[in-house]
Amino acid sequence: MSLRLSESLADEIRRHGEAAYPAECCGALVGRLEGEAKEVVRLAPAVNRRTDDPHRYLIAPDDLRRLDADVRAAGLDIVGYYHSHPDHPAAPSAFDAAHAWPWYSYVIVRIDQGRGAELASWVLADDRPHMLPESLDVFSEV
Amino acid sequence: MSVTVAIPTPLRNFTGGRDAIDLPGATVGEVLDGLLTAHAGLKRHLVQDDGRLRTFVNLYLNDTDIRQLESTSTRVREGDVLTIVPSIAGGSPATETALPKLSHAEVLRYSRHLLLPEVGVEGQRKLKAARVLTIGAGGLGSPLTLYLAAAGVGTIGVVDFDVVDLTNLQRQIVHGTSTLGHSKLESAKGRLTDLNPNVNVVGHEARLTSENALDILRDYDIVVDGTDNFPTRYLVNDACVLLGKPNVYGSIFRFEGQASLFYAKEGPCYRCLYSEPPPPGLVPSCAEGGVLGVLPGIIGSLQALETIKWIIGAGDSLIGRLVLFDALKLKFRELKLRKDPNCPICGEHPTIHELIDYQAFCGIGAEPDYHGVEISVEEFQRERQAKGDDLVLVDVREPHEWEIAHIEGARLIPLSQLPDRLSELDGHAEIVTQCHHGARSLKALEILKGAGYGKVRSLAGGIDAWAEQIEPGMARY
Predict the structure, then answer these.
(1) Which residue of B87, B305, B319, B470 shows the fewest CB atoms closer than 10 Å?
(2) For an interface test with B, which of A103, A105, A110 has the most B Cβ atoms less than 10 Å from its Cβ?
């Protein structure tokens, strides 16, 4: 599996992370399966329900149920999630890995002193709880 | 009974691509067991090693989270839909780079800490980053702030409005003869910064009140309660629960002390242990009852220890445990504390959502007249010898208090259960209600009188007076 994401959506993730800095932003990747690739069609920014700790994010199940219903009604699926790591590498923390679901793509964006930096995508390894890098294809639209 | 289980996209690799599976079962738990048996690959993603659902796995029966029902014991009906809904959680590592660095002088100063793998450079940097608020710069606050400062806690806030008095110096070792008459904040700040100039001591020269508590506590990571009175103790507890902060509790009296770590996110709070304060005037303060000077040194040091362990994340915390210390016997005992699901502030259906009037809550300034309905422990003992089992003693405390000590022959009916358990008491019996200090037993008396029981009295001073005057070998708390 790989993840396809347009340059403009990648920028949208960076902007969301910049706006939430120094806390973390989070949201869902809405898209569809195209053969062996998950293609992101749009983002669904989510409310970070963890307000007690800027190093954590949580998308609550009630929020997710509503989002999932909307996404399905549009004939799409949630293919993964994104969140920001303020002043940390775009690599999963132990906490990320411990809470990951299989199959979903987890895109992490590094926010460097308030400015959006690199993105990387990760998936949960079969023998949880650690995550493996996933091929992330950021393409520019013509 | 057949229930449809809806499988979310990320788990369909484990169900052969199916998005819904019909399974038999009478409860959510049975349906879930059936699912995990039929599709074993799901197991490691949905349940922990101990068999419980992972924290980020939610089950909805039709439209309701089963945690709001009866969890996995919830009964299901034909045609119900059970949906697996993810919580999506994560975050950046709470990190090395965000922690302040240590200077060469600090490395040398803390070298005995750095040699301990449980502390090490990272733990020492966590201490430097930590912000600890201590309520009170008195008996408990003295050893506490001294050890926190020596340990290199970066920011120590101190709330106190008092002045150093000669009677303080028998135990309040952060102050000295040279600072008699000075404000305790000024006195403590001088001593603490002399001990460790790297520490930022922030003084809050105020009495902690419902109006200022949240604003003062908000900026700190952990709160240490060194107060000597019940209104402030309940105030500190409630403010910590409302702000989601840990509260390192300690209290002392004469030769005995207690300590625990109340952290409502992970365990019980002070109200789970003591739902009601003792009636005003019943428990003498240290000023009235006296205290052995070294006792706050021991309990305050335990509080410093728990604070430091919590900051560096080492060892087993006192969450859910109450340590009782008896200086004369030199004995430590430990009680398990459970979170009270009916706790008015941290229970399942809290009724307290903001700070209240703690003076009024502790009955200060408004004591009703209970003259004539109380019986002294001596009188009770005499009547009991004469009447035997015809005089029924009803202990209305909680079971964990019963475990500490109880009067032989008493019947345990916790106050909260009394209205539902009246049928256990003979309406013609002569009843004496009893609690810890004699306050709850008066409430129980009112409940019984209201229900038509004619011959009810309340044991004045409760089991504590009994232990003090009648049965000296009994444990007191």
Answers:
(1) B470
(2) A103
Tell whether B241 is within 8 A of chain A (Cβ): no
Whether residue A99 and residue B88 make contact (CB cut-off 8 A), yes or no, is yes
Q: Are residues B380 and B336 in the same domain?
A: no
Task: Write the class of the CATH domain A2-139.
Answer: alpha beta
Domain boundaries along the sequence of chain A: 2-139
Residue partners of A41: CB distance under 8 A and separation at least 6: A30, A31, A32, A76
Specify whether B290 is located in the same domain as B412: no
Q: Decide if B44 and A60 are in contact by the 8 Å CB cutoff.
A: no
**Whole domain around residue B387: which residue ranges?**
374-469
Amino acid identity, position B359:
Q
Tell me, yes or no, whether B390 lies in a domain. Answer: yes
CB A6 within 8 A of CB A30: no
Is there a single domain that holds both residue B309 and residue B407? Answer: no
Out of B9, B45, B85, closest to residue A61 by CB: B85
Catalytic center residues of B: 286, 435
Q: Which helix (H) or strand (E) holds B323?
A: strand B321-326
Instruction: State the residue for tokens 């700070």.
Output: B355
Token pair, residue A77, equals: 């699926």
**Beta strand A115-124 with A131-139: parallel, antiparallel or unpaired?**
antiparallel
Of B339, B361, B383, the domain-final residue:
B361
Residue B92 is assigned to a structural domain of this protein: no
Do residue B404 and residue B339 come from a single domain? no
Q: Is the CB of A100 inside 8 Å of chain B's CB atoms?
A: yes
Yes or no, beta carbons of B65 and A61 under 8 Å apart? yes
Beta-sheet pairing, B64-65 with B131-135: unpaired
Q: Which distant-in-sequence residues (6+ apart) come within 8 Å of B114 by Cβ?
A: B107, B120, B121, B124
User: Which residue in the set A68, A103, A106 is minimally distant from B13, CB to CB?
Assistant: A103
Nearest CA in chain B to A28: B88
User: Does B413 lie in the same domain as B279?
Assistant: no
B15 CB within 8 Å of a chain A CB: no
Quickly list H helices, B313-451: 358-361, 377-387, 399-404, 440-450
CATH code assigned at B454: 3.40.250.10
> Is A52 part of the contact surface with chain B (CB cutoff 8 Å)?
yes
Each residue's pLDDT tens digit in chain B (477 positions)?
Answer: 789 999 998 999 899 989 999 999 999 999 999 999 999 989 989 988 777 888 889 999 998 889 888 888 999 999 999 999 988 988 887 644 468 889 999 999 999 999 988 898 889 999 999 999 999 999 999 999 999 999 999 999 999 999 999 989 999 999 999 999 999 999 999 999 999 999 999 999 999 999 999 999 998 999 999 998 899 999 999 999 999 999 999 999 889 999 999 999 899 999 999 988 887 656 666 655 678 999 999 999 999 999 999 999 888 999 999 999 999 999 999 999 999 999 999 999 999 999 999 988 887 765 566 777 899 999 999 999 998 888 999 999 988 889 889 999 999 999 989 999 999 998 888 999 999 888 889 889 988 988 889 899 999 999 999 999 999 989 888
B253 within some domain? yes
Query: What's the CATH code of the domain at B174?
Result: 3.40.50.720
Q: Note whether A55 contacts B89, CB cutoff 8 Å.
A: no
Q: Which residues of A touch B95 (CB under 8 A)?
A: 55, 88
Among A52, A99, A128, whose Cβ lies nearest the Cβ of B90? A99
Between residues 49 and 68 of chain B, which touch chain A (CB distance below 8 Å)? 55-56, 58, 60, 65
**Which of B86, B115, B150 is a domain's end point?**
B86
The Cα–Cα gap between B19 and B8 comes to 7
**Which chain B residue shows the shortest CA-CA distance from A58?**
B89
